[in-house]
Amino acid sequence: MRIALYQPDIPQNTGTILRLAACMNVTVDIIGPAGFDLSDRAFRRSGMDYIEHANFLRHINWQSFQLWRSETTVPQRLLLLTTTAQHSYVEFFFQPTDILLFGSESAGVTDEIHNTVDKSLTIPMHYGFRSLNLAVSVAMVLGEALRQNDSFVKP
User: Fold this and answer.
1) Quick one: CA dihedral 49, 72, 70, 82, positive or negative?
2) How far apart are CA 132 and CA 71, in angstroms?
């Protein structure tokens, strides 16, 4: 299981997601350009004390992420979490090799990406509400995916 963040805007969300990923032993792909400095120095300076324990890859753009995916030997489904999807994440069966893709906080993802993914999923919400915080969304979906695959880190 992997988390992919497409052009994240808010460093605090990315820091929270990296901490979650470190605790759950999941890798994060950060697809640039981001709305903040992605250097190791910037991560350390922002106080992300879990950064040295987090497994993450930086991709300069969508094309470099797709190139990386094409070179992996294990088939990986790319699952987009979006407010525009018709299928709920709780009704979907996740596989251990899935990549959970989340768009930027301010703009989501492009139409090209919507048309590229294997499946689009949504988090059902009470009528009239638009979206959840990115880190909260990642935690909810990752938790369900790990639960389904009995992939939580064992104590």
Assistant:
1) negative
2) 33
pLDDT digit string (tens) for the chain, length 155 residues: 999 999 999 988 998 899 899 999 999 999 999 988 877 666 655 546 677 888 999 999 999 999 999 999 999 999 999 999 999 999 999 999 999 999 999 999 999 999 999 999 999 999 988 889 999 999 999 999 999 999 987 77
**Residue 155 three-state SS:** coil
* CA dihedral (97, 98, 103, 104) positive or negative: negative
How many helices and strands (H and E) does the chain possess? 5, 7
Distances in Å between the alpha carbon of 147 and those of 8, 45, 55, 93, 139? Answer: 26, 34, 20, 11, 12
Q: How far apart are CA 37 and CA 115, in angstroms?
A: 29
pTM of the model: 0.93
Domains of the chain from N-terminus onward:
2-148 (3.40.1280.10)
